[in-house]
Known about the structure:
The chain has helices spanning 4-18, 23-30, 70-82, 105-120, 124-133, 179-182, 185-203; strands spanning 33-36, 39-44, 47-52, 58-60, 92-94, 137-138, 144-151, 154-161, 170-176. The chain is of the alpha+beta class.
Amino acid sequence: MARVDDYKAAIALAVAKLAGQSFVAIRERTGLACPNADRFQIRFLGRLYGIDFPGFQFADLEAPEREIPLQEQVLILHYMLGADPERHPGDMIAYLEIPGASFYFESFVKQAINPLKEVFGRNLDAFHQASQALQGTPIDAGDAGYRFQVFPQIALHYILWEGDEAFDAEANILFNESTGDTLSPEDGAWLAGMVVHRLTALSRG
């Protein structure tokens, strides 16, 4: 598991790379909102963040006192580095179909698949309510499924098959085929887990 120092180092590296790019180039490449000429804006997992330019400092625009997790900052900066509007999103694919994902598959299951099943596998009503609160779009898959547009160029599908006394719950999380060209496999596992974590928090009020 990454340490705080690792997250800070990843942020510093990403910022150093982005600092060499113009505001307009980043805006056009990422599809992020830009309310003015020195701030990017993104609604990430239900929270509205501002990212100043050229310092790339983060602020929660709806709750300024709330600290933004370093891991979320890393993911958003990595998206800003890897985004490409010319890249076709492609079909939805399983995590293991992302190049290089096999090394992180155990972490992906532990961070995302297992918690999704444990929290919602026998409570689809809570899954529906939390997914709608997170502005998910229903999809026709499993016993319940939702699409989350987590970044302008990256969507994830969360699918559940309800468990009962005879059968365990099952779950799957699908990614845009182009995700591996934008984020690393490790980032993909983190992102999938973050969505589950936010859904869990919403289900508990």
